[in-house]
Amino acid sequence: MTQFDKANFNxxxxxxxxxxxxxxxxxxxxxxxxxxxxxxxxxxxFTVEEYFFLLEDKDVSPLKILNAKGYIxxxxxxxxxxxxSLREQGLYEVNQKREDGEKKLIEDYLMEFAS
Length: 115
Known about the structure:
By secondary structure, the chain is mostly helical.
């Protein structure tokens, strides 16, 4: 299994690619400042083969792939804080079943990859 090397990431036109063949990793057109946190999490938690297996072979979105291993974007953190305040006031109920289902699907794909 090959670890990601930060020197092999390329960013141009809002698209993050990897390697000399410039394989698509993720898109950051609207907020390119978030890519560094994304790259740091990706390099610490995934191998090249594992990530591209999920992205290309299983057609899972980049954010969902990282979320499956605990990645939380800045936007998601702020949203969670806001929703928590609404929940405390009794104005919001979480749909945890959907989030758990998506996470389980990706975990199943990772098990398939490992076997």
